[in-house]
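To illustrate the input format used throughout this study, we show a single complete record. The first block contains the structure-token representation of the backbone; no residue identities are included at this stage. The design step must infer an amino acid for every position from geometry alone.
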């Protein structure tokens, strides 16, 4: 008994300083608080308004702490640099501390609520990736979703070619994966066709029209080409997301019912047509681009269907 107590005393004396040091570090790391903070967002931005709802749902942050820029009092608005706010949200310290912007502000918000987020973002590679994704979203937020109104204000983000290209690249990669998965889900309707063949054919059918239109935009739209291609990327993703329920249903059940994917394609096409009309109107270019887009998509699909299954 005496020996066991002696061992226990040695363990306590050995580990206590280490434990206290760890607790000290943790307490310092998790001292972040939103008690005197005000989250400011761009209410003209549909993406920002949606993310506001995500923040309110995923965290215990009260809606009084998340305020639209245009609703700020003159005292609070003077603490926001409009140049920095164009490209990222603002986190105001109501006690007079420095205002934090963009990825640093978002990281502060979620780190104050979730210890695991604070731990992960303490690693530079993770924080750099988070920053890249945030800026890609922030600089393209009016491309991802057209603004609620077209008035020009200090809220409109700068056009940074690198982040616009990054968004388009990510969108094309996601679209390629979803299109291939959709093609793979239809292989059961064609006896003897492999999943890879079905995916390749669907990529050609669905993608040819988009590629041709992209080339036309670069050739004829001048300084609006990059914006138009960005909007095309958003339209493409929105349309493909409608196909995801069928893709998941097929993956889980293996069902091969032609009417479900056919209905999904009709809904997807109608949604993309509606979005394209609105995006062209927003860009103030001719609706001839909508007509061309629609014809190219249908012609490209019909041509490959004839080549693979009719000829």
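Output of the design step:
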């Amino acid at each position: 008994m005496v020996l066991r107590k002696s061992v226990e005393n040695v363990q306590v004396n050995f580990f206590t300083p280490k434990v206290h040091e760890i607790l000290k570090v943790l307490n310092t790391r998790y001292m972040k608080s939103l008690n005197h903070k005000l989250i400011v967002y761009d209410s003209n931005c549909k993406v920002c308004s949606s993310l506001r709802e995500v923040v309110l749902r995923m965290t215990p942050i009260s809606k009084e702490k998340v305020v639209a820029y245009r609703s700020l009092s003159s005292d609070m608005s003077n603490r926001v640099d409009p140049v920095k706010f164009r490209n990222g949200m603002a986190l105001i310290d109501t006690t007079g501390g420095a205002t934090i912007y963009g990825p640093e502000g978002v990281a502060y918000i979620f780190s104050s609520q979730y210890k695991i987020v604070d731990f992960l973002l303490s690693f530079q590679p993770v924080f750099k990736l988070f920053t890249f994704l945030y800026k890609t979203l922030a600089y393209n937020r009016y491309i991802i979703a057209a603004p609620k109104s077209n008035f020009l204000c200090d809220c409109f983000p700068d056009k940074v070619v690198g982040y616009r290209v990054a968004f388009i690249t990510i969108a094309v990669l996601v679209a390629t994966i979803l299109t291939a998965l959709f093609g793979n889900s239809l292989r059961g309707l064609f006896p003897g066709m492999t999943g890879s063949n079905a995916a390749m054919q669907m990529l050609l059918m669905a993608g040819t029209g988009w590629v041709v239109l992209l080339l036309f935009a670069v050739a004829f739209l001048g300084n609006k080409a990059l914006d138009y291609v960005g909007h095309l990327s958003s339209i493409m993703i929105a349309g493909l997301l409608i196909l995801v329920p069928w893709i998941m249903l097929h993956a889980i059940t293996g069902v091969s019912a032609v009417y479900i994917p056919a209905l999904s394609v009709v809904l997807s096409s109608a949604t993309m047509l509606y979005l394209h009309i609105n995006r062209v109107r927003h860009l103030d270019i001719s609706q001839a681009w909508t007509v061309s887009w629609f014809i190219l998509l249908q012609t490209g699909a019909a041509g490959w269907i004839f080549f693979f299954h009719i000829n």
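Structural context for interpreting the output: Residues 1-15, 18-30 have pLDDT under 50 and may be disordered. The CA atoms of residues 72 and 92 lie 11 Å apart.
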